[in-house]
Design a protein that fits this description.
Distance between the termini: 44 Å
Radius of gyration: 23 Å
Helix content: over 70%
Number of domains: 1
Largest sheet: none
Number of strands: 0
Shape: elongated
Number of helices: 15
């Protein structure tokens, strides 16, 4: 028997002693959820590398690099500030209009970036999905990591802007910012899980998401105030539907936490109740959508 055959037999003997580990998601809502969490934690180093790759790929061969994180929202800020604030006169009823818009844009950008980029995260990593098994959840989660890096850069710029205007928020207001971030992350992650999985089977989803995000932007008080719209829909079923949008609540919380000049402006009644409901319902949907993701991921490799 040759040395090569002896080595092969030794390897076979060692493999025979190893326990069999299923390469796939665990079924069941409770057991499957626990297994998914353990799987993501086991591959946390890969998740960190994916976040770094996402950030590097976004600004690859770019001269300005991370400055583009600021250029786009600042360009949007200038457009809305002059078009709506100056030309349409919105700043006459909204004090410190630039801070107001930038607060809303910062919150909205975090949500839209996670949802839009997360939708294509599985398809965009098709090469890895087809070659090896690993928890597919790491791909939409890596998008969240890179979006948070961009978000905190914008949030720091926004805070500096409040210092320059002479009305920085106090620590008591930061609780609203934290609550707004929590609402956005929970809902955006839930939708990223569901849409990234469905997009593997139906590629039109990514285009539908772009349209939905465009509508969602104008369905939240980002470039206009609640005071301006409440006279039209306040106390009606349309007002209830408007406040049922969790992103609307998150944007209002951001403005309440960072837009000090608007402290005396009217707010929807029961805003705290709406925020609590958004958190609870969002957590339920996050759980359900992750289990749908786990069920659909079995055929990702074949579809890709």
């Amino acid at each position: 028997m040759s040395v090569h055959d002896l080595e092969r037999d030794k390897r076979a003997a060692r493999l025979a002693t190893e326990p069999l580990v299923p390469a796939g998601p665990t079924t069941g809502f409770l057991a499957g959820t626990g297994a998914s969490i353990r799987g993501v934690w086991q591959y946390r180093e890969l998740l960190r590398l994916l976040v770094r790759r996402e950030l590097k790929a976004r600004y690859k061969d770019s001269v300005l690099g991370f400055l583009w994180t600021l250029i786009k929202p600042l360009a949007m800020l200038l457009v809305y500030y002059f078009a709506i604030g100056k030309f349409l006169g919105a700043e006459r009823s909204i004090p410190e209009f630039a801070i107001y818009i930038f607060a809303g844009l910062t919150a909205w950008t975090l949500f839209s970036e996670i949802v839009s980029t997360g939708t294509g995260s599985i398809v965009g990593n098709g090469g890895l999905v087809k070659k090896i098994y690993l928890p597919r959840e790491v791909f939409p989660l890596s998008v969240i990591g890179s979006a948070l890096v961009n978000f905190f850069i914008q949030l720091a710029i926004l805070y500096v802007a409040t210092l320059l205007t002479g009305s920085p928020p106090g620590l008591d207001r930061l609780v609203f910012v934290v609550a707004g971030i929590a609402i956005i992350l929970i809902w955006a992650t839930a939708w990223a899980f569901l849409l990234s999985a469905v997009n593997v089977y139906l590629r039109d989803v990514q285009w539908l998401v772009e349209i939905a995000l465009m509508v969602g932007f104008w369905a939240s008080p980002i470039v206009y105030s609640w005071e301006q719209v409440s006279g039209q829909i306040g106390g009606t079923i349309w007002g209830d539907l408007y406040l049922a949008n969790p992103v609307t609540i998150a944007v209002m919380y951001f403005q309440r936490g960072l837009w000090v000049a608007g402290s005396d402006k009217p707010q929807p009644t029961g805003l705290g109740v709406h925020a609590a409901a958004a958190l609870v319902v969002g957590l339920i949907l996050l759980w359900v959508f992750q289990r749908v993701f786990a069920r659909l991921q079995a055929n990702f490799a074949q579809e890709l």
